[in-house]
UniProtKB/TrEMBL annotation:
Keyword annotations: Cell outer membrane, Ion transport, Membrane, Porin, Signal, Transmembrane, Transmembrane beta strand, Transport
A Pfam family annotated for this UniProt entry: Porin_4
Porin domain segment(s): 20-322
Chain segments annotated as transmembrane: none
Name of the protein: Porin
Subunit structure: Homotrimer.
Signal peptide: 1-23
């Protein structure tokens, strides 16, 4: 349940966040708690052994956060977000142990859009969640390319919405500050650099997105290495039915030798009844000039017990070819050329 704590809450946390109750900042405390019981086949690095575990964030990443706004007058607002990821199964933080690893930014918003500074979602993350049949659950598009849910440290971002068109641009002076000398190196501004731009347009029942993302190596020696992604997606919604399709081309130049790959996906969702929704998706990674390809199939059922609490059942099968070793989720791997099955049942609560 989102609790808008205005004067009293602002006074309580104002000293920590650097503002007083007199600023009359509206602060929202929010979060997601998600955990389930999971089975994964061929879970060892050599493909041997199955895994049974309690896992976190199977339907949505578990998190808690603070979101604030202040009316500055003249149509301007001061804004901030501090969002921390957590593993419900162990109580530990996610994303490299950062306190606010999911998001941490501050900025100014107005009729022209908003400009924000800090650790932020990249442009792929901003636009492609609704264009993934599985909507970024672990068994999803992210199993083929986790950078679709990428975040960048030290980022400057602009986002503007003009009718049915939303545009965004991001520039990071070092996308991963946990790497020693991996970003913001004096005299080497290209180290760890990331930039991206994208647009999302909706008209009637249709929507589409186009995004470009580019990253450089995280050392002085590799700053000239480039990794580029070009992605496009379509969505059609009619009543309880949603269909999506997408494509991403990757030019992988951060490692040697470099490679190129194409990723295609197709799927959708259908609300059988107001409380029950099914999601299904097919994803294929085609590595150019190689037989190291992979295809996965996902099926998910979500039943709403209330407006804030869901139970779910997710299943996926990853079919690897050649030396591909993708798992059903980005955090999982298997032996080259071996298939993997994952099934998880759990509960999610939003507050």
């Amino acid at each position: 349940m989102k609790r808008k704590a205005k004067r009293l809450f602002a006074a309580g946390v104002g000293g920590l966040l650097g503002f007083g109750a007199q600023a009359q900042t509206n602060v929202t405390l929010y979060g997601v708690v998600d955990a389930g019981v999971e089975y994964v086949s061929h879970a060892g690095s050599d493909g041997a052994g199955s895994m049974y575990r309690v896992s976190s964030g199977n339907s949505a990443g578990s998190r808690w956060g603070l979101r604030g706004t202040e009316d500055l007058g003249g149509g301007l607002r001061g804004i901030f977000v501090l969002e921390s990821g957590l593993h419900v199964d162990t109580g530990t933080t996610t994303l490299g142990g950062r306190l606010f690893g999911r998001q941490a930014f501050i900025g100014i918003a107005g009729p022209w859009g908003q400009v924000t500074l800090g650790r932020q979602n990249n442009t792929l993350f901003d636009f492609f969640v609704p264009l993934d049949p599985s909507r970024y659950k672990p068994y999803s598009l992210l199993a083929h390319d986790a950078h679709f849910a990428g975040r960048a440290d030290n980022a400057i971002k602009y986002t503007g919405k003009f009718g049915g068109l939303t545009v965004s641009g991001l520039y990071s002076t070092g996308y991963d500050a946990t790497i020693a000398a991996g970003s913001e190196v004096p005299g080497a501004p290209r180290v760890g650099q990331e930039m991206g731009a994208g647009a999302y347009y909706t008209t009637g029942d249709f929507g589409m997105a186009l995004v470009y993302d580019q990253r450089r190596g995280t050392s002085v020696a590799t700053a000239g290495n480039l990794e580029r992604r070009y992605a496009a997606g379509l969505i059609y919604t009619s009543g309880p039915f949603t269909a999506v399709a997408g494509y991403r081309h990757l030019q992988g130049g951060l490692t040697s030798p470099g490679f190129r790959s194409n990723l295609y996906w197709l799927g959708g969702a259908y609300a059988i009844q107001p409380a029950l929704t099914l999601h299904a998706g097919i994803y294929r990674t085609d590595r150019r000039a190689s037989d190291d390809d992979a295809m996965s199939y996902t099926l998910q059922a979500v039943y709403s017990l209330s407006k804030r609490t869901d139970v779910y059942l997710n299943a996926s099968y990853m079919d690897n070819k050649g030396r591909s070793s993708l798992g059903v989720a980005s955090s999982l791997k298997t032996a080259p050329g071996l298939g993997q099955t994952g099934v998880v049942a759990g509960i999610k609560h939003i507050f």
